[in-house]
Recover the amino acids of this structure.
């Protein structure tokens, strides 16, 4: 790793990979883009809004290989100090971000039936990143973790009890990473104490 570390942030969706490369020291975006049309013949990669590049092999691993190649062209590959993955659903197992281990992967897989279109794609991204960036620490950030403080009457309202007791189906709340950012930013801009409810 060189002296200017960066973070690679990956959001694998059901048919795309959105990504950003951030300078650790300044949080400046050095590179951003999307690989879209994953698993279709029309898959492409677009970096910083430039002309799209067709992907010869449109799966998640090959899309991440193309992203890694773009990092290499910019001499950023050895600078990747951390990879962050947005994970759609953590169920009741994940209440905060975690370092990715084999056990974490198994548990993400376990809750994936709650978000099958997204979590399995997220797992494909983790697997591909582990192959392409061996030894680089990876973190899972769960979209559902922000809403883990919902009271039982809020997350069970309107559902038959057996859905929760036998299937684990409950209200979770989504887009938590965005909600967390907006609420923190509101506290900063309004100069509020963090204990104040907004």
């Amino acid at each position: 790793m060189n002296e200017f570390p960066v973070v690679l942030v990956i959001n694998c969706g059901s048919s795309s990979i959105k990504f950003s490369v951030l300078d650790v020291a300044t949080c400046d975006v050095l590179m951003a883009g999307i690989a879209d049309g994953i698993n279709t013949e029309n898959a492409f990669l677009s970096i910083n809004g430039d002309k799209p590049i067709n992907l010869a092999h449109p799966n998640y691993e090959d899309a991440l290989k193309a992203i890694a190649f773009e990092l290499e062209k910019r001499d950023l590959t050895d600078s990747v100090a951390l990879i962050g993955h947005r994970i759609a659903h953590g169920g009741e197992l994940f209440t905060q971000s975690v370092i990715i281990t084999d056990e974490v992967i198994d548990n993400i897989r376990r809750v994936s039936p709650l978000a099958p279109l997204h979590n399995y794609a997220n797992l494909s991204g983790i697997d591909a990143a582990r192959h392409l960036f061996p030894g680089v620490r990876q973190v899972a950030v769960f979209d559902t973790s922000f809403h883990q403080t919902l009271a039982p009457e809020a997350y069970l309202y309107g559902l038959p009890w057996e859905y929760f007791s036998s299937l684990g189906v409950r209200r979770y709340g989504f887009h938590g990473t965005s909600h967390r950012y907006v609420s923190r930013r509101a506290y900063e801009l309004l100069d509020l104490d963090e204990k104040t409810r907004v």
Notes: The CA atoms of residues 183 and 198 lie 8 Å apart. The radius of gyration is 18 Å. The chain has two domains: 6-142, 149-198.
